[in-house]
Amino acid sequence: MNGTTPAAAAPPRTAFFRRLSVTDTITEPVVELGTAGSVRNPYTGEVIASVATAGADAIDSILERARRGRRTAAALSRASRAAILDHAARLVEQRAEAFALLIVSEAGKTTIQARKEVARAVNTLSLSAAEARRNAGEVVPFDSYHGSEDRQGWFTREPLGIIAAITPFNDPLNLVAHKLGPAIAGGNAVVLKPSVLTPLSALRLVDTLVEAGLPEEVVTVVNGDADIAAAIVAAPDVRMVSFTGGFATGEAIARTAGLKKLAMDLGGNAPVIVMDDADLDEAVASCVSGAFWAAGQNCIGTQRILIAHQVYERFRDAFVARTKLLRVGDPLDERTDVGPMITQQAALATQAKVDAAIEQGATLLCGNDVDGSLYTPAVLENVPTTSTIWQEEAFAPVVVLHPVESFEDAIDQANAIDYSLHAGIFTTRLDRALAAARQLEAGGVMINDSSDYRFDAMPFGGFKYGSMGREGIRFAYEDMTQPKVVCINHPRAT
To answer: Which residues form the Aldehyde dehydrogenase domain (predicted)?
Structure first.
């Protein structure tokens, strides 16, 4: 099928509400009504689809539909929400290869990486279903307080109402599931704005949820630019904004949102410490994967590796040798280790940052070549700590190697950046591992693992500047709901 809507399922009057049919292929364009935005394959540059886009003048229609969705969502029982999410998880699992190929096609992930993302999305939806069933509230022990002996009650977890979810390009399926799953579990309606670069996985996931029984109006997908995003964020009807993306956009959202909840994952610059007692083979293998997975477009990707000076040269040589073995190329080729960056502009911008670091005194050990949107993984040493590559998130296949004199020096260097998501340490000493867990200023500390490990049930978010809220299904669900207390005064019979 070519993605046109059959007469039996005509789109609503505003064309940007139309979703992608689950039967649409990824090799033919998705034909949309109204103003269209092109979706390009990052590797080939070919237009693979077009989606209808909305301007700021569409905000009234969007909110009207979302308000209907809010009423519908709140009326769904917990059993219904859980059943829908479980059914959607099974459908995604059954169609895993089609979802993976869609991710490869629009986001440029390698086939193996895309399959892993689909498996995680299945788990995310299943965890959301479980949360809908279990996290309903608690009994409040009113009679434990003097003067309240004749009272008893409880609190429930009630939906916030309408949640705006804004997602990036790098995990176009699972990061959408991380916002939709807990929001639906909590009985909310969602206005979803996926990345303009990778909307297709989001559209197909929403279609799958509808096929699983979710009423259509519960999730409104809006494709468009910053103007429509700002209008959604500013709307008083929207009670929470859940955003994953860059700091500049996060600051703009905070200024625009007004009095509502904000949950933000704004990126990181992950340090990994390698001590002199570490298993170097394990550390090298894990750090290469952690640095270059998804072409480095990963907010918890390993960026700064702080290596004990006693083993620095051994680690450096092994790390560079392993990096040079990585195959860069077509993401559909299952032999490929590193696919394209999201655009050629992103690859060229990364090369420019690395060139700037080299001009400031850094030494390039390998990589930094650009071919279209392909960027050969770059490894640097002697990087000035004042350089952009050291101070800011690269969000690219670039890693910095840096020797440290002691454990204390490593902790100081790791914590020197103003924001943080994950950090890691490789050591065989339990005392060092536990000391690092206490002293590293990060939302997660991975011990004998690279910084990019994430399990979808764990709390996930940042420390220090820009840290707001947590993802991870239980924690997002609790952010997306609000307690309501019920107290019964019943004097005891005499």
So the answer is: 38-486
